[in-house]
Amino acid sequence: MSCPNYLRKALKKAVDFTCEDCGRVFPENELEIHRIKEGYKGGKYIGRNCKVLCGSCHKVYADSW
Fold first, then answer.
1. Which of 13, 55, 16, 17 is nearest to 34 (CA)?
2. How far is residue 53's CA from residue 40's CA, in Å, rounded to a whole number?
3. pLDDT digits over 23-61, tens only?
4. DSSP labels for 38-60?
């Protein structure tokens, strides 16, 4: 399951297209949505469970799973 388009766009816009970990600004298509509580643990794609990250920062989370 992936993040719904409407939510993905809203989250990116809400943070002004800025990675929430490194603080750099990116084009919209280079940002990814990360679930704070993982999907296999019941985490859903809802605003309070998501972070907007660049690919490099998102990879750090993926590597730690």
1. 55
2. 20
3. 999 999 999 999 999 888 999 999 999 999 999 999 998
4. -GGGT--S-GGGEEEEEHHHHHH
Amino acid 37: pLDDT:
94
How many CB atoms are closer than 10 A to CB 20? 15
- Tell me: pLDDT of 65 over 70: no
Domain ranges of the chain: 5-64
Average pLDDT over residues 8-18: 98
Q: How far apart are CA 46 and CA 24, in angstroms?
A: 23
Domain 5-64 classification at class level: mainly alpha
Residue whose tokens read 């993040």: 3
> Counting Cβ atoms within 10 Å, is residue 53 exposed (0-12), middle (13-18) or buried (19+)?
buried
Q: Tell me 18's DSSP state.
A: B
